[in-house]
Amino acid sequence: MAEVENDAQKLALATTNNNNEVAPPTEKKVKKVVRRKKRPARPQVDPATVKNELPPQTGTIYNVWYNKWSGGDREDKYSSQTKAPNRCVISTDAGYTRADAHPGTPFCLYFARGICPKGQDCDYRHALPGPYDIPPQNQDCFGRDRFSDYRDDMGGVGSFSRQNRTIYVGRIHVSDDIEEIVARHFAEWGSIERIRVLNSRGVAFITYTNEANAQFAKEAMAHQSLDHNEILNVRWATEDPNPMARKREARRIEEQAADAIRKALPEAFVAEIEGKDPEARKRRKIESSYGLEGYEAPDEVHFARGANAVNPRGREGYELENEQRLMLEAAEDAQAAEEALYEQQQQQPEPEKGGILSSSTLAALQSAKVSVASKPKAVAPAGPLVAYDSDSD
Prior knowledge:
Layout: H1 2-15, E1 61-63, E2 68-70, H2 90-93, H3 109-113, E3 166-170, H4 178-186, E4 192-198, E5 203-208, H5 211-220, E6 233-236, H6 243-264, H7 267-274, H8 278-287, H9 299-302, H10 327-347, H11 359-367
Antiparallel strand pairs: 1-2, 3-5, 3-6, 4-5
Family: Belongs to the RRM CWC2 family.
Organism: Podospora fimiseda
GO molecular function: pre-mRNA binding; U6 snRNA binding; zinc ion binding
């Protein structure tokens, strides 16, 4: 028996023998992130070939600030059929400029047309508008001022009265694969939501995801050609008279507003409102049952506010009908309030000379609340598409 115990002790000592040798440290694998340097924007045309000439007269008044003629609502149909001298290529022309040091700088209009001679020395951005490049409501992505209404030929800068993400393209050479050709050429300027091609008329309607991309594409593809050397006529599209399209656009605007509200509010509060928080859902189910088994009040009842609200929280700050005081008590309180107001007026100092209204009158005016009824918004007239000044030529 003693021999067995001795063998067990030796085995325990052998198993508990610690090894004091230090293991060599393992080499840490460091992942190197190689960031490509953003290349500078290159000049699209030779600066020596640029001539400061006046544009052809298409209006009645020459605007020195914008270097163009104004006063004419329609472009010259002969000059609109002149092919553009160059075209922007995003893969080779885009790059950083002086404007990258100043966030919010507009994009270069001449870069979109492919004729900017300055390159990296340009004071505007040489890139495509991104999803977060949202220009002011009264300006486009190039920094040009927009107007309250569109021109007669749906050309020019556009209008700030509505958000327009659709451009009209005319003079398209119709072929069997015309939809693929249009999608390939116009997808260079941003994400496209919808393309509709009318083969019988040789026109197309391209709807971009962002309005800034539609503004950029309108200038980039003006007087350009696709695969058959045609000269495109690019204009703003009129409002779609289809009621389904109007509902879809209204739903998209509501979703944008909802996303903006979600970003502004805390995540826990948003999850509780949308019913994504299970604990908040259980609490809401218990609170909206009002002690009734199996009952859950709808949103319009649970979140109602006023003296007659079912939810006790909705009655906070409102006087209930069954808690109203008697007329005699209310009259006594009103008389006491009048006496206190009279004594307070007697104790107030006299108004300074030259003042028209007394201090009590001014206090009453400040406490008064005046509500002004807002005028109903005028409904935009709906009509057929305009001729866009092109396709009958």
